[in-house]
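user: can you give me the structure for this one chain? tokens are fine.
assistant: on it. calling the predictor now.
[tool input]
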Amino acid sequence: MGTDYVAVPRMNLDAYTQLDELIMSCADASWRKVALIIMRVLKAHGEDGETSIFLIIQRMRKLIAAQKLEARGNIWSPRYSEVRLLQSKED
């Protein structure tokens, strides 16, 4: 009965900020599948080995908590959940 742990590479604050900005640039005002956003981020970020699906979802959760993104569904199930840029109250 072991627990599986996912290794997340250590990144500096600038790298997290850049990843957050990339996630935000891949989202828009319309609802989009989390899987689509992940694919866009991975494609734009390149294959550097530093960015994982797990890390992207973690950063999305931070952006949702910071009220920069809005989500519906469980984002840990990327094919069945969606995110969009948070709509202002005036919209």
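assistant: here you go. The longest strand covers residues 69-72. Helices lie at 13-26, 34-45, 53-65.
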